[in-house]
Amino acid sequence: MIKNVLLVNPPFPMQERYQSAFKNVGTILPKLGMLYIASALKDEGYEVCFIDATLEGCSVEETASKVIDIFPDLIGITTETPNIHRSTILAENIKLHLDVPIVFGGPHPTLLPQEVLKSNAVDYVIIGEGEVTIVDLINTLNMDSPMERIHGVKGIGYKKNNNIYLTENRERIKDLDNISFPARYLLDVDRYKPTPHQYKRLPVFNMVTSRGCPFQCTYCSASNIWERRYTTRSVDNVIKEIVHVKERYGAKEIAFWDDLWGMDNNWVDEFCNRMVKDKINVIWSCECRVDTVSEDSLKKMAHAGCWKIFYGLESLDEEILAAINKKAKLGEIYDALLWTRKAGMESHGNFILGLPKETPEKVFAMLEEICKLSLDYAKFNVLTPYPGTVLYNEIKSGKWGTFNEVLDKLTLHHVTFLPYGYSNFDELDRMRKFALKKFYFRLNYVIERVLSIRTFEDVKRYYRGLSALMAI
User: Fold this and answer.
1) Are 128 and 110 within 8 A, CB to CB?
2) CA dihedral defined by 394, 399, 401, 403, rounded to 10 degrees?
């Protein structure tokens, strides 16, 4: 009988995720997906424990030892593509000592469930949203003759008689308000911190208001994971969670980590009005597309406490944007950044280097334009072709360049794909470092940052960021 469930965020060393220069400033945030799962299990009367081995800096062996000491009835492990090998080894180590069901969930098992189930240590995978599925699975396992009933559990993969089976897809959760808030009480919340440019005030809490994205950028797996459906929580439900973390944990800032925040203009209006009317008095940030904001909506967001918007710009070359089906136009990029600055908010832009049709010459030209934009921060990732994306399939077919497919390196910070316009992998890696230095080591930019300092926390943030840049 399953009564006690242990959820595990497996080890993922910061140096492997971010490379040496950024290992001390990389983001470590609570795994909201796991915490939602924990709440769903708690609501059904199950006892839940949580181990965040990434936060603790544990090795695989140390994590396995912690799990064995707890001796749970069932273990849930979340994993992403670059960490699937380590997660699988962790499960294998645990199985040597505990004969209990091990369930994998997260982006990678959702997209490649059959591959994940090939490991003898993985008994089940959760495909897609897990809150309803994990409860259904455990309830079924607690019944008489569970393996005769297991195929009725929607949204899972499992093994029977050495064969792998996938059950019928589970429908997306229609009303996100029915899901309890993440079980943050399982964590030492004060130990989590984002990168220096992602916050202004501590403590800051990450939160999501929606799930999914209707757009079909070829490099992104969100449309496959969420079936292109975009669902939002009610404004009232989101406000209640903000008030909850403010009153219980003293939150001073909220970082919304939606794949796409505020696509519905009516929702944005209602949210901003409530933040002002209810005098919530926390600042917040979010991630938007340039083609879903307007000058009016940005003014309202700033008035409601938004201090920063993270835009996924990816490139300033129209041919490249077309190749990845980004849809956004250059004019929309320039307008959104100008409106954001006029509204008094910071704008952070994400760029992806090594995209299809890119050449060093295009990047040099683009960097000149990026430095003219009203951007407060720029992030330069390298293209990571994730399994389950359209771009991954295109690249595997040889369409855009050379792919060195090493799953452990698919972190956004390691060069694994080389477009035909580059001569070698080192050239692209040097280009990323050049882009960072080009943007951040401009005299007028440094002066602007220094003049923006208002608090001692600002000084600490800038020092941490500068230390990482100097180590490139």
Assistant:
1) yes
2) 40
